[in-house]
Write a structure and sequence with these properties.
- The chain is mostly beta strands.
- It has one domain: Methylamine Dehydrogenase, Chain H (7 Propeller), CATH 2.130.10.10.
- The radius of gyration is 17 Å and the shape is globular.
- β12 and β13 form a beta hairpin.
- It has no helices and 28 strands.
Length: 318
Amino acid sequence: MRRARRLFGLAGLALAVGPADAGSVWVASQQGARASRIERPDGAPAAEVAVAPSPAVVAAGPGGRLYLSHPDGRAITVIAADGPTLQWPVPGQPFGLAADPGWRFLYVGDWSGNRVLRLSAETVAAAAEVAVGPDPAGLTLGANGRLYVAEREGRSVGVVDTARMVRIAGIPVGDGPFALAHDPVRDRVYVANVRSNDLTVIDAGALKPVATLPVGASPYGVAVSPDGRRVVVTNQHAGTVSIVDADTLTVAATVPVGRYPEGVAILEGLAYVANWFSDDVSVVDLAARTETGRIPVPEGPRTLVAAQTAPVSAEAGG
């Protein structure tokens, strides 16, 4: 059965953020209102945590902490490593998330407010904000304190100097930029453009696009391997992922996965892909370029993050 979209129309929930060299993958299921921890590529989730309705994006924080955004609920869920799971009100409609490497701040895209909020990673209190382009979707942090914002209706990626909380540039990309991933090895930003069915490659140092690659229909998620050699793009309408060779900037393989693949995270040579309509996570071996299995998860998995293992805590409270 085809599932109704909530609130966002074309803007599906398919981001991959956080460290790629951690020990487990967390999956946020929208309809199931669960966060599930995957520790093995060949087994069921090791744990599940009940959260508030309609979680959108999940991000990793300090000490195993997780953050989940709830645009409809105007709130963020915090799954603490050593305490209860709490829900905190946030101004606007929180969507995209990115936590800084020092774990001081959490950056939150306000979908309807065309701004990015800087929150305390510890207390989730708002500390600063900056205006960005229309419908900010994916967020990713790069070098030199720069935050990159997919401005979906602006056909651009905004660049924010987080030290000053000022938008310093807008980089033209394809139609409907939605998901972003930063490669620290080459200092590139990869941008999945959902309407133009392509991937924009940005030279983050020069702040300009250097290539555009055709991928599959409706690319919604993107992730980069820790060594920077492979980029994985989920193609929602095609039911595939594109594996891009970062050296040649060509599509090396197209791999069938589940129905409506959206979020993607890479861990230990494997890509984990959230299949929204299949209620499972595909496991793709990047060296063999094949799907090796699927892991059933609660209904509507849409976004993932590779993160430190956090213990299961109490259900979401107020």
